[in-house]
Amino acid sequence: MQQKSVRRSNRDRTEATRADLIAAARKLFTEKSYAETGTPEIVAAAGVTRGALYHHFADKQALFAAVVEQEAAAVAEEIERASPPSLFARDALIAGSDAYLAAMRARGRTRLLLLDGPAVLGRAAMDEIDNRHGNRTLREGLVAAMRAQAMVKLPVDALTALLAAAFDRAALAVEAGASADDYRTVLMALIDGLSPHQAPRPARTR
Amino acid sequence: MQQKSVRRSNRDRTEATRADLIAAARKLFTEKSYAETGTPEIVAAAGVTRGALYHHFADKQALFAAVVEQEAAAVAEEIERASPPSLFARDALIAGSDAYLAAMRARGRTRLLLLDGPAVLGRAAMDEIDNRHGNRTLREGLVAAMRAQAMVKLPVDALTALLAAAFDRAALAVEAGASADDYRTVLMALIDGLSPHQAPRPARTR
DNA sequence: CTACTAACATACAGGCTGTATGTATGCAAC
DNA sequence: GTTGCATACATACAGCCTGTATGTTAGTAG
């Protein structure tokens, strides 16, 4: 047991306080929403005062960004843990998408990452975060599939973004009670539709 | 010219005031965001007081819902106007998606309908609105394509939702400065990938 | 040991939301 | 038409929240 008011270095204090604030905020932001959660409530849950919060974060939005960042990293880590390294390109994509949908079932994650995140931080900021974490894996999987000729060649960034958007919407729908099987079926169909079985019909450019 | 304080029926007054409030709110919500727009600013722009607002709408969120509803209807109408009635199923889908992307270029529409809308009203409410307007056309187009055997049979609701999600993300990306051509190419590839050229490889259900 | 700085806590100002209350106008019945 | 009620507002108020400014304690460098 450690006695109260142990002597701690400033670095330790900062780290601990920041972690406490992020953890408390994460809990409240996922239970309720960003707008419905006030900073007085957050600091009370973290056991500090608003002074500490505004010392460590520029504003409420910056604290939110830190929470989103951490949660996106957690999702990415769950996916990487679930998807074995070397598979056929298509199987790796499917394993990854299943892992993503599973990870997004954690309570409140969809609202945090898919609803409040884009609205509060903007799509650009969310893209930047996603590309540093979860989307990286997806993008690499797509590049690998194209290189292995298991997928038609397409602009990679756009394809990554659009598939990610479909995954996101699927996660939201499943959480809202839709048939997970239906959505999984369609996701697989969209992915398999990109296989190069036949020469693609000449696309009328205009 | 009509003299001031003309005698108007209550129904006319209500309709005019509601329309003024919605128009003023729409302008501000699209120029800034929902969170950054205060009710004092809205009523000032509409030329009434906050009393009128809270007489006609339950709260700020209800006014926002009315704005979103109207804007979604406007988008749907632009699409229907742009897409000729009888085409081959695939061409109709492409024309519709182009029309959607064009309609979403109106200033502030993406934030209103794709960012703030889901965050403030929730995905369920936005789905309900979308299904009453824009998504109806998409869904019918998909059903027609499947019936004409121009598209593999898939769960229609899930497919509609996921394609709509992809369109939405494309609209956001294009507004953020991404290559519209790239996104259009990928969207077409996703749609064409659903054509039944070959028997689909046996999907391992698990 | 001294001086400076980081890590907080406390106090304050401004703004916003929603509600309660007051007032004038349309409207319906007699 | 006037009496009475409901509708359409305007005004006033209470509570909360955010961000900042200021004060205090604890670490840390010289």
UniProtKB/TrEMBL annotation, chains A, B:
<protein>
    <submittedName>
        <fullName>TetR family transcriptional regulator</fullName>
    </submittedName>
</protein>
<feature type="DNA-binding region" description="H-T-H motif">
    <location>
        <begin position="38"/>
        <end position="57"/>
    </location>
</feature>
<dbReference type="InterPro" id="IPR009057">
    <property type="entry name" value="Homeodomain-like_sf"/>
</dbReference>
<dbReference type="GO" id="GO:0003700">
    <property type="term" value="F:DNA-binding transcription factor activity"/>
</dbReference>
<dbReference type="InterPro" id="IPR001647">
    <property type="entry name" value="HTH_TetR"/>
</dbReference>
<dbReference type="InterPro" id="IPR049484">
    <property type="entry name" value="Rv0078-like_C"/>
</dbReference>
<keyword id="KW-0805">Transcription regulation</keyword>
<keyword id="KW-0238">DNA-binding</keyword>
<dbReference type="InterPro" id="IPR050109">
    <property type="entry name" value="HTH-type_TetR-like_transc_reg"/>
</dbReference>
<feature type="domain" description="HTH tetR-type">
    <location>
        <begin position="15"/>
        <end position="75"/>
    </location>
</feature>
<dbReference type="Pfam" id="PF00440">
    <property type="entry name" value="TetR_N"/>
</dbReference>
<dbReference type="Pfam" id="PF21351">
    <property type="entry name" value="TetR_C_41"/>
</dbReference>
<dbReference type="GO" id="GO:0000976">
    <property type="term" value="F:transcription cis-regulatory region binding"/>
</dbReference>
<keyword id="KW-0804">Transcription</keyword>
